Amino acid sequence: MLKPALQLKLGQQLTMTPQLQQAIRLLQLPVLELQAQIREALESNVMLEPEEEESGGLETDDAPPPHQTAYDSPPPTEPGAATHEERQEAGDDEFGLDLTDADTNDQWTDSSLSGPAESSWSGDDQSLDFSAARGETLQEHLSWQLEMSRLDPYEMRIGAAIIDAINDDGYLIEPLEEIAANLQPETMASVTDLERILKVVQAMEPAGVGARSVGECIELQLRQLDPDTPGRDTALLIAAQYLDEVAEQQYALLRRQLRVTEAELENALALVRSCRPRPGSSVHSVPAEYIVPDVFIRRTEKGWAVDINPASLPRIRVNQSYASLIGRSSDHAMLRTQLQEARWLIRSLEIRNDTLLKVARCIVQRQSAFLEHGDEHMQPMILKDVAEAVQMHESTISRVTTNKYMHTHRGVFEFRYFFSSHVAGCDGTELSSTAIRAKIRKLVATEEPGKPLSDSRIAAILAKEGVLVARRTVAKYREALGIQPSSERKRIFVR
């Protein structure tokens, strides 16, 4: 017979506290999404307010810039003075981030999250307008021309239906029979009428709009040329029947079938290549997606310096006016909850920026040769290397390096760009796959155009330089770089 009993067990369990969940969520957000998150928090939490940049404060020229690192000495390892209670309150113990070791050395000086940026990378200087304003769409452009044409209401309805069936590239993507069926029962239109109105639409700007195929699109553009243009008739014939031969570069076959000379064929091909395969792109433009760097890397007299982008730092603080009015009565329970959430958010942002800065320092320190000399000197590095250096978990490093960007004098790179696999060299050293790709790009750029290097030849040249890679590896890297095979490069040179 079973009897009820009490048992005592000891165990350890990781608890995902709200502070930890918030810190992890903010850590993996890119700059633009982080700023959107902060704006949402400002709207929903009355205890948060944006911090206005102070002016007229006492500033000294020799004050160290915020979030800056100069690599003339190794990073300090002694812990800072933050108490265990402060870290426990902020959730640092659960997050596994000991962020206090970055605050004890003058050359690794960090400013507070909400403090004004006093470095040369000021937020005002780096402010950009990331508006998503878009211009006129292709359908609006065509509708305006349709309204200016002298068509009766019946034809206008047909023209509007045809324009609605044109995609952003300028092609008619629906059959005329389907468009006629969609017009019913309000408008009983025949396919003949649709063909007639389609020609009106195809005469609009941009040239080539309303085509149903690439060949028809090129024909529409060629027919707008002067009839006396050299090679126009041959180009029209190529667009109608021989685009596949042009794509396969079968020029000898084209000359025989068209019965033209080499010069006449070149003139016709030049006209074909001058046409827009996507005419709608000249009107419909996709809004630019800007990349906001999270950190700036610049050279100083003491070495490479790492600065957090001040434009990406959300300057928020607790509204002290509201916080001071909170009493101990139960009437203020909601405000006390919002005050605690505001403090958690600010602390989570501090953890995010300090972690981001610590990882960026490690990357710059390990890839200083790349900053000095370029891709060929990229050092092999994986997430585990950085995780061991900064004493964090690999999953944390993965979150930090995803969708985070670094601005250098060589361009803007994602943090992930600096991580690459290891390839063994002849002398036992390890090389980065990024460096090997750079060597392949350099070899192809300096090859003789008439005698391009094959993959086997490139592998042999790299072996002489101490880089042991197989031909298949060379082919994989070459394809990743968008470089054509040696046979294609030779054919292009001969042509």
TrEMBL record:
Family to which this protein belongs: Belongs to the sigma-54 factor family.
Primary role: Sigma factors are initiation factors that promote the attachment of RNA polymerase to specific initiation sites and are then released.
Domain RNA polymerase sigma factor 54 DNA-binding: residue ranges: 334-491
Domain of life of the native organism: Bacteria
Residue ranges with Acidic residues bias: 49-62, 91-104
Keywords recorded for this protein, A-Z: DNA-binding, DNA-directed RNA polymerase, Nucleotidyltransferase, Sigma factor, Transcription, Transcription regulation, Transferase
RNA polymerase sigma factor 54 core-binding domain: residues covered: 132-322
Chain intervals with Pro residues compositional bias: 63-78
GO molecular function, one term: nucleotidyltransferase activity
Region: Disordered, residue numbers: 45-128
GO cellular component: DNA-directed RNA polymerase complex
Coiled coil: none
Skewed-composition ranges (Polar residues): 105-128
Protein name per UniProt: RNA polymerase sigma-54 factor
UniProt-listed GO biological process terms: DNA-templated transcription initiation
Record keyword Disulfide bond present: no
